Amino acid sequence: MSKSFRFISLLSVLIVTFLFFNAINKNETDPETSTSKTYKIKALKLPTNLNLAGERVPLEIPDVKERMERELLVNTYWQSNGLLLIKRANKYFPVLEPLLKKYGLPDDFKFLALAESAFIDETSSAGAAGMWHFMKATGKEYGLEINSNVDERYNIEKSTKVAAEYLIKSKERFNSWTLAAASYNAGNYGVSKRLETQEVDNYYDAKLPNETERYVLRIIALKEVISNPKKYGFVFENEDLYTLEKTRTIKVDTAISNITHFAKKFGMNYKEFKIHNPWLRENNLNNKSRKVYEIKIPVN
Q: Which pairs count as long-range contacts for 30-35, CB under 8 Å and 24+ apart, including other chains?
């Protein structure tokens, strides 16, 4: 290769490299191509009226303000998750609201259920299950039937009644709905022990496990964002939201040997049956005790 050709090749590489980095720098500073022209991440102003069941969040406490901002930012700018939660809330809140009223629990606790399970049928790594994420031991302690065949943690009506009983007892113990919510995450004993050791009597003055410190504020952040979605940039039409299919209830006091065949009698397949009756965990219902179960059937 001649010296002149090598010189031209090297010069060409240098020119291309210069143009490449110049283009990068231009894209970073040019308002016409900058990401900031079409997408802005804005600092959020915390509303002054944030509360859980009427109990005010003391934003004048610096660390409370920072932690509250964290949860509000996460639930605002994790847009895909936020929109899915808004969609599912529209599906299940109409079921939860009258149940919470019936069992004497403040309406705000529907956001606790949402924070627990995101309204999806998944078991946590610790084994908590159902909309309210009960552990087996706790569910059984409060009278839920939990075995390989029937798991009433997945029964919305029954599990909501149990959640209300637990939270109301915690409220009576701590005289605070906020501490009741914290105890749902950390347990009554765990919260009580830390309050006693630290000689404080409220959630916002206590040093609690990191998950519990985030837990209540996450619930409040969800309440704020889902109650005011457009304020936080979520744009949708009513038809974009999920809704729960209407059902009727039939009572069964015998065994069901084959749920697939049982479902077909009512115009359903196995999957449809399980969507409406997730508490039935197998393809049969043993029911040796002849207990009366309520089964939901879609209304055509």
A: none
What pTM was estimated for this model as a whole? 0.86
Structural contact between residues 140 and 129, judged by C-beta atoms closer than 8 angstroms: no
Q: What are the helix (H) ranges across 30-152?
A: 62-77, 79-102, 110-117, 136-141
Helix, strand, coil distribution of the chain in percent, nearest 5 = 55, 10, 35
Phi then psi for 195, rounded to 5 degrees?
-60, -40
CA angle 267, 294, 117 (to 5 degrees): 95
Per the rule left: phi > 0, alpha: psi between -120 and 50, beta: everything else, 256 is: beta
Collapsing DSSP states into helix, strand and coil, what is residue 213? helix
Amino acid 246 reads: K
Nearest-CA neighbor of 164 among 154, 145, 177, 151? 177
Is residue 108 classed exposed, middle or buried when 0-12, 13-18 and 19+ CB atoms within 10 A define those classes?
buried
d(CA 131, CA 114): 8
pLDDT in tens, 76-96: 999 999 999 999 999 999 999
What's the number of CA atoms in the CB half-sphere (13 Å) around residue 85?
27
- Give the tens place of pLDDT for each residue, 59-79: 999 999 999 999 999 999 999
State whether residue 55 is helix, strand or coil: strand
